[in-house]
Design goal:
Elements: H1 16-28, E1 32-35, E2 47-50, E3 56-61, E4 76-80, E5 85-86, H2 92-101
Antiparallel strand pairs: 1-2, 2-3, 3-4, 4-5
């Protein structure tokens, strides 16, 4: 059961610094990526990542209701449509590794 009183009224955990960290981790992992050019609103910043075997991933922020205050750096998840897969909420480095290592 979720502790709803711990969910922030305004979800401000995704900052510009954390967006920069994710971009750096994706690049370090050897993945090609681009964002939707919403750096002015980090919560709305989404990424498209091309992983091994040219699989496309969309990296999106977790919904505030899914935010775990005990894991405050786990801010995003990766979603792929073919074949369907969604990662758990992860921080920058594990998310980059997940996109790089997941096999088709």
């Amino acid at each position: 059961m979720a502790d709803f009183h711990l969910i922030p009224a305004e979800f401000e955990h995704i900052t510009r610094a954390r967006c920069n960290e994710l971009g750096s981790m994706l690049t370090t992992a050897g993945l090609s990526w681009e964002d939707n050019d919403r750096q002015d609103t980090p919560l709305r910043l989404k990424y498209t990542v091309t992983g091994p075997c040219d699989r496309q991933w969309s990296i999106r922020p977790v919904a505030p209701i899914d935010f775990d205050p005990w894991q405050p750096s786990d801010l995003r998840h990766a979603v792929r449509t073919a074949p369907p897969h969604q990662s758990p909420a992860l921080s920058a480095r594990p998310l980059a590794d997940h996109n790089r290592e997941l096999k088709p």
